[in-house]
Write a structure and sequence with these properties.
The protein has helices at residues 16-29, 47-57, 72-82, 102-110, 128-145, 161-164, 177-183, 209-227, 232-262, 274-301, and strands at residues 3-9, 34-40, 61-65, 87-90, 116-120, 157-160, 189-193. It has 315 residues and is of the alpha/beta class.
Length: 315
């Protein structure tokens, strides 16, 4: 099979039939063998009934229904598990992503050799209160990930099948899939300018909290990519540094007291000095951080992911 189109959705009943017919027309015009996987993330507006009707009418349509609304990331993850096409393409169900982009995305994967191609909505049809935070978020992700993409959160993306089978999307990590793919060893990541259409039906299902969650997920992913398999390199280093500084400070504080006693110079009690308590606090925190790194190493030692590597070729 050439292409699997994975479409996560929540309450998009008005657009589903039109979207499938548009996809089918593009696939037929380019002689692609394909499947369309609709993942209904707990819709309450009759979306599932439309998907079921399309599935009975067209053999290429497959439907997955969640019992409740879990979010876009679990929907994509489950759709990826079911996808069988050599190229997996994701798009939103609101008709803002154009299926006419599919042949170009397919070509970049199969002929140009990219592992992943992300759409770039260069000319957005969104208000400023949505575009400005999006640009700030994309700039931050570029800084942390080193991936030169303009639009990490674009729903229109294309992947080689083995990419989606080797990454796990959870929480709200769908915004950071290119970063996750890079961490998994798929470094040939490209970008394609795509058309962004105005929403035709309904309203957006995402609020301002997605930007807060996006930053938290970014920092989590950055930390896991750097220290997920070697936590002692982070906690042990900082803990050792704090303990060392605290220990030196205690010696200086005690040495100063002894010097004053030796010279018969009046000096306050060591325990009344704030520097003494700060020094002890640094030593205690340093010890706790070091032990946290040690416990982290014990946990990663028993993790099934500790020796998981991407093998690109073998002879």
């Amino acid at each position: 099979m050439d292409i699997s189109v994975v479409i996560p959705l929540y309450n998009e009943s008005e657009s589903l039939t039109e979207l499938y017919e548009w996809i089918a027309g593009v696939m037929s015009a380019n002689n692609f063998s394909y499947e369309v996987i609709f993942v209904d993330d707990g819709s309450t507006d009759g979306s599932w009934e439309i998907i079921a009707s399309l599935g009975k009418k067209y053999g290429e349509v497959k439907g997955i229904r969640f019992g409740q609304n879990y979010g876009k990331s679990p929907a994509l993850q489950y759709g990826f598990q079911k996808a069988k096409g050599e190229v997996v393409i994701t798009m939103d169900a609101d008709l803002q992503d154009s299926p006419d982009e599919i042949p170009g995305l397919y070509k970049m994967i199969m002929e140009d050799g990219f592992h992943l191609v992300s759409g770039w909505k260069k000319k957005r049809r969104d208000p400023l209160n949505k575009t400005i935070p999006t640009r700030l978020f994309n700039a931050t992700v570029r800084l942390f990930s080193g991936i030169k993409l303009h639009d990490f959160n674009c729903g229109l993306k294309a992947y080689r099948n083995r990419v989606v089978k080797n990454i796990e999307i959870y929480n709200d990590m769908h915004r950071l899939i290119p970063y996750m793919a890079k961490n998994a060893g798929f470094i040939r990541i490209g970008e394609k300018i795509v058309k962004h259409k105005a929403r035709k039906y309904g309203s957006t299902k995402f609020g301002i909290n997605r930007f807060v969650n996006g930053y938290l997920d970014l920092f989590t992913l950055w930390f896991l990519s750097k220290f997920g398999k070697k936590p002692m390199h982070f906690f042990g280093l900082i803990g050792s540094l704090m303990f060392f500084l605290g220990f030196i400070a205690v010696i200086i504080t005690g040495g100063t007291k002894l010097y004053c006693l030796y010279r018969n110079i009046p000096a306050p009690l060591v325990a009344t000095s704030p520097y003494f308590h700060i020094s002890l606090t640094c030593m205690i925190l340093g010890t706790q951080l070091f032990l946290s790194g040690f416990v982290g190493e014990l946990i990663t030692r028993n993790s099934p992911e500790r020796n998981r590597y991407l093998v690109s070729e073998e002879i």
